[in-house]
Specification:
Strands 4-3-2-1-5-6-7 form a seven-stranded mixed β-sheet. By secondary structure, it is an alpha/beta fold. The radius of gyration is 16 Å and the shape is globular. α4 links the parallel β3 and β4. It has one domain: Aconitase, domain 4.
């Protein structure tokens, strides 16, 4: 039996909240740099149905390029969620996103499934990180995760 590589634990992330409402479409995410550019290390925080629409991969690429540390929402469009995790961008489900204000300082601990709002003192639980999702994020994305587990171009797992 072969030993699969382990990935280092993810360090806590620290940044400011950039807050949006419900139903933020993938197309409007792509336009963010022209409207409300998030700063490197910021967290995009939204309500329900983040990333709906026809361009989830482009939206994830824009957020990664902008340096967004994670997206925190009450719910995600499934294609956006899959694209984000595959790209190594944490897409975190938190019920209390309405309590977060733009500019709030957040500390996100993926390993502990917790978010601390350092501005208000509130604490929130990350509800959607299973072990395999965390492993993909630890690897930096799905391609690295699969390559390190014996999958990749011209390779099959035995």
């Amino acid at each position: 039996m072969s030993h699969l590589p382990e990935f280092d634990e993810l360090p806590p992330l620290l940044g400011n909240a950039c807050v949006f409402g419900d139903g933020v479409s993938a197309e409007s995410i792509v336009a963010l740099p022209r409207t409300v550019p998030p700063a490197v290390g910021d967290f995009v925080v939204a309500g329900l149905d983040f990333g709906v629409g026809a361009a989830p991969t482009a939206a994830v690429e824009m957020l990664k390029t902008a340096g967004v540390a994670a997206v925190i929402s009450r719910s995600f469009a499934p294609p956006f969620f899959r694209a984000a995790i595959a790209a190594g961008l944490p897409a975190l489900v938190v019920e209390e996103t309405g309590a977060v204000r733009s500019g709030d300082r957040l500390r996100v601990d993926l390993e502990e499934h917790k978010i601390a709002n350092l501005s208000s003192g509130d604490r929130y639980i990350i509800r959607n990180l299973q072990d395999e999702t965390l492993d993909v994020l630890r690897a930096g994305g799905l391609a690295t995760y699969l390559a390190n587990h014996g999958y990749g171009p011209g390779r099959t797992r035995h």
